[in-house]
Amino acid sequence: MAELADALLAPLSQGFVLRALAAGTALGAVGALLGVFVVQRGLGLLSDGLAHATFGGLALGLLVATSVDGALWVALPFTVLIALGIQYVRRHTTLGGDVATGVFFAVSFAAGILFLGLRPASAPPVNVEGLLFGSLLAVSPGALVVILVVAALVVLVLAAIGPRLAYATFDPELAALSGVPVATLEYVLLALTALVVVVGVKTVGVVLVSAFVVIPAATANLLGRTPAIIAVLAVALGVGGTAFGLFASYHLNVATGATIILTLGALFFLALLLRRR
Amino acid sequence: MSEAIRARGVTIDLGTRRVLDDVSFDVERGEFTALCGPNGGGKTTFLKAALGLLPLRAGHVEVLGTTPHAARPQVGYVPQVKSFNTAFRARVADVIVANRRGSWPLRLGAEEREAARTALAAVGGERLLDESLTGLSGGEIQRVYLARALATGPALLLLDEPTAGVDARGRVEFLELLAGIAKRRELAVVLVTHSASAVRRLARRAVYLHTTLRAWGPPDEVLNREGEDGGAFSGQDHTNGSFCEDE
């Protein structure tokens, strides 16, 4: 038994696996926390749109930086601005959030393709596949620090605004009458989601990062009866699913990001079967 | 003492459309007023102006002698049934405590729970305390919302078609409950309704809004004025007219 445990945990003796575990579980936790609000507001597509916008930001960053890690510093403000733009359109027009997201996502992604084409021929080649599908096992110590700082920031801000944001999620008009700054909190929620999505792109890629936000929260929403229980469940599912997926991919020698998302997806379908009718 | 509501020359535009034009009337403290008129006539818009949620193009509204914003802690508001996010897992006790706290309670203290129970008991809904809001009937939800509004001890209650979508029996029960509480607590009430019978039975005065103030006074006079105004709405369902004889 002890030998089996040793064999299963053997990957932890390697630094790059430890970094991947720390980055993945941190993103799994804060993505799930944000997801509780995002999913209950019916904004599931938003994180997907922001992930595609991140591609535009990273491509813009690669015009001036030589590596994806360096381009992250352009992608962060770029994607936060896109998130604020989506929220502005939601609040000030009759277009829904999905339409606003669709417009910004398509324009950003198209701009990203254009930016990549504008890079000088002498610039180092860009691994587009790495951007699309991520490389959790290749997270550098510097990128890990950025992920942990963003995760800590999200936890601190949500601890401060969570109860008021929850009230605004239940009924924005009643919350506003109770003195909750509904519009400001919505901008903050979208900006935080943008930050998590940008740093998450490095780990599981543009195509899959929104799963960190949507799937654990959707699963918890099927099982939990109160917002507090849903939040705790979502974090547990995000962290547990990510850790399990990482170890499974290592031992099975298959793609890490995809295995994590498939694990989270399997938990979702299990919850569908187990939920109280 | 100042009026519960004092509206003078209230003019509100929503986009390019003028929804209220130079509307003036008063609601006395302790008075039950029915706010009537066709859909799009400006009833909900007026309530939102009295809650300080909409800017005025011209005129002013005083609520309990002060601005609508400053008066909010003394105003209870009951919105239409299921105006809330049904994807949000809200329990009845949380809904009531949120109004007292100004934020969503992740955990309830014993004192808060007791306050929620007391508020529910006042509307005959004590058994609903731990229920999920989405599992309740329209009539039960409106009892919870009334308890929520009363939990802060308001001097003025604003209700926006609280019985729309509630079955006939639930409508009668809710309005009788409301009338009793308003009388006992000497609350000023403004009830937006399409029910002519509710206007006659409950209100001391009625206001008939159709962008402008068409009538303001005793219920029978206002209902007669509505009839003279074309009577096109009488007897129709609330979804497309002013009044329906539903109770």
Label the structural class of chain A: mainly alpha
The fold-level CATH name of chain B is Rossmann fold
The amount of helix of chain B comes to 25-40%
**pLDDT average of chain B, as an integer?**
87
Name the strands of the widest sheet of chain B in spatial order. 5-6-7-3-8-9
Write the element-wise H/E pattern of chain B from the N-terminal end onward: EEEHEHEHHHEHEHEEH
Query: What percent of residues of chain B are in strands?
Result: 15-25%
Looking at CATH, the homologous superfamily of chain A is: ABC transporter involved in vitamin B12 uptake, BtuC
Do you know the CATH architecture of chain B? 3-Layer(aba) Sandwich
- How does the overall form of chain A come out from the CA principal axes? globular
- Report the count of strand segments of chain B: 9
**Radius of gyration of chain A, whole Å:** 19 Å
CATH architecture of chain A: Orthogonal Bundle
Largest sheet of chain A, described in full? none
How big is the Rg of chain B? 18 Å
CATH fold group of chain A: ABC transporter involved in vitamin B12 uptake, BtuC
Query: For the report, how would you describe the main beta sheet of chain B?
Result: 6 strands, mixed
Mean of pLDDT of chain A? 89
Number of domains of chain A: 1
The percent range for strand residues of chain A is under 5%
Folded structure, characterized:
The complex is a heterodimer of chains A (277) and B (247). Chain A has twelve helices and no strands. Chain A is mainly alpha-helical and 277 residues long. By secondary structure, chain B is of the alpha/beta class. Helix content of chain B is 34%, strand content 23%. In chain B, the strands form two sheets. Chain B has a six-stranded mixed sheet with strand order 5-6-7-3-8-9, with helices on both faces. Chain B has a three-stranded antiparallel sheet with strand order 2-1-4. The radius of gyration of chain B is 18 Å and the shape is globular. Classes of the chains: A mainly alpha (277), B alpha/beta (247). Chains A and B meet through helix 7, helix 8 and helix 11 of A and helix 3 of B.
